[in-house]
Amino acid sequence: MLFVVGPPAVGKMTVGNEITRLTGMPVLHNHLTIEPVLPFFAFGSPPFQRLVGGFRRRLVEEVAASELPGLVFTYVWDFDDLGDERLVREYAEPFERRGGRVLLLELEADLDERLRRNSGADRLAAKPSKRDLAWSRRHLLEADAAHRLNSREEFDGCPAYLRIDNTHLAPGEVARRAVDHFGLPRAAA
Question: What is the pTM of this model?
Answer without folding.
Answer: 0.94
